[in-house]
Amino acid sequence: MGFTKGVHVRQRYFYGYNIVAASFIIQGVCIGALFAYGVFFTIFQAEFNWSRAAISGTTSLAFLTMGAVGILAGRLNDRIGPRVLIMVSGTSFGLGFLLISRIQALWQLYLLFGILVGIGLSTHDIITLSTVARWFVTRRGMMSGIVKVGTGIGQLFSPLIATTLIAAYGWRNSCLIIGAVVLVILVAVAQAMRRDPDEMGLLPNGGTDQPGEHGSNREYGISLKDAARMGQFRIMCLTEFVIFFCLLTIIVHIVPHATDLGLPLAAAAGVLATIGGVSMIGRIVMGATIDRIAGKRSLIICFVVLLCSLLWLQVAKETWMLYLFAAIYGFAHGGFFTVVSPTLAELFGMGSHGVLFGSVLFSGTIGGAFGPLLAGRIFDVVGSYQIVFLLLTGLALAGLLLITMLRPLQGSQLGR
User: Fold this and answer.
1) How far is Cα 325 from Cα 278, in angstroms, rounded to an integer?
2) How far from chain centre, in Å, is Cα 60?
3) What are the extents of the domains in the chain?
4) Which of 204-208, 213-217, 361-365 has the highest mean pLDDT?
5) What is the DSSP letter of 195?
6) Predicted TM-score (pTM) of this structure
7) Helix extents (H) in 314-352
8) Cα 47–chain centre separation
9) For residue 41, what are the contacts with CB-CB under 8 A and spacing of at least 6?
């Protein structure tokens, strides 16, 4: 009796929760290291006399590399699964930071951070969220939201950790430590990743069955070639461009804007921290919401909240007003990064989810690379962010209108 009961307990535990936990860690480590890199900006500027624009360019290159390699990573994940891909990208990420500790020239930073770290970043969203989407159906949004909370944790704690390391060991040794930790954790956590429940004789959401019996039914969907001809896919690509353009422009420029308004640096950094903290709430809430009301309505909610925050930003001049902006905007920020992957699964099925998500995300990274640079250029010319915020408001409105035109595909189009 005891043996039977023990077996029953073990069967009730679903391995998909291991996938969620591993993906949570991958998200936190990757985005944490990315945010830690921002702590080195002023150090590089002081030690090498490089301009802030030149150093910022390494981040833009990393985003473009992430997006371009992400398409290939997504296609490979559809075929071979996540374990090897996370190991390779994690090794690239860790080596990038390890070698940054030896840089002497700007081109080396572009190569190591812009390319190697960019390759490392290429899998953190596409591979984790696409894999989670295969393991969960009815709770896909909630599980995606939990995974994305890892990003918020990384955003909150990594700058403090990096600052402490630099104070204790210097910036070069800090890069060595960060690189080693990132490499070891990502390669180790990758061992827990599995492509789908079929590999373990399971069904999504915790069901059990013989491997392969239902895989073909679950893996319905359309190819990238077919999706590229559909208006729905083009809408998602344009929408992701708008989302990344707006979100990364705010993240890069909100602290300088706050200091321009007279906030002390600590208070301005607190605005950014508030965004990170509230974004975790947005990830969980919108993850649960998309499971109930589907992707289109969830994206509409995120855009409406984003629009409200940007309209408020036009008149926010005092400290409390900027913190209120951060709270409203942070919810939308977290929500957007949670709902896109489940929306794509809902629209196009899981057959080619990895490469479809990678392609949509690449459109986003173009916006994410271009937006902050354009905002900086506008500020250099006119000496204010007012035009930038008006532009972001117009783009957010355009994104909202695009989503209202989104229509679900018919079952026959998905190969069901």
Assistant:
1) 11
2) 15
3) 13-200, 218-408
4) 361-365
5) S
6) 0.80
7) 319-348
8) 31
9) 52, 55, 56
Residues 334, 126: contact at Cβ < 8 Å?
A: no
- In Å, what is the CA distance from 182 to each residue of 27, 33, 87, 177, 188? 11, 8, 11, 9, 10
pLDDT at res. 5: 44
> Which tens digits make up the pLDDT trace of 109-144?
999 999 999 999 999 888 999 899 889 988 888 999
Degrees, nearest 5: CA angle 241-153-78: 50
Total number of residues shown for the chain: 416
Give the chain's largest Cα–Cα span.
78
The CATH code belonging to domain 218-408 is: 1.20.1250.20
Residue 354: its pLDDT value, please? 84
Alpha helices in 38-112 (DSSP H): 41-48, 52-80, 82-100, 106-109
Which residue type does 25 have?
Answer: I
pLDDT at 411: 53
Residue 230 has pLDDT above 60, yes or no: yes
For residue 353, pLDDT beyond 60: yes
> What's the mean pLDDT when you consider all of the chain?
87
CA angle, corner 371, sides to 359 and 327, nearest 5? 95
Identical fold for domains 13-200 and 218-408, yes or no, is yes
pLDDT higher at 272 or 135: 135
CA distance 343 to 340: 5
Assigned architecture for domain 13-200: Up-down Bundle (1.20)
> What are the angstrom distances between the C-alpha of 331 and each of 257, 277, 291, 309, 328?
20, 9, 17, 10, 6
Which positions ≥6 away from 337 have C-beta within 8 Å? 125, 148, 151, 279, 283
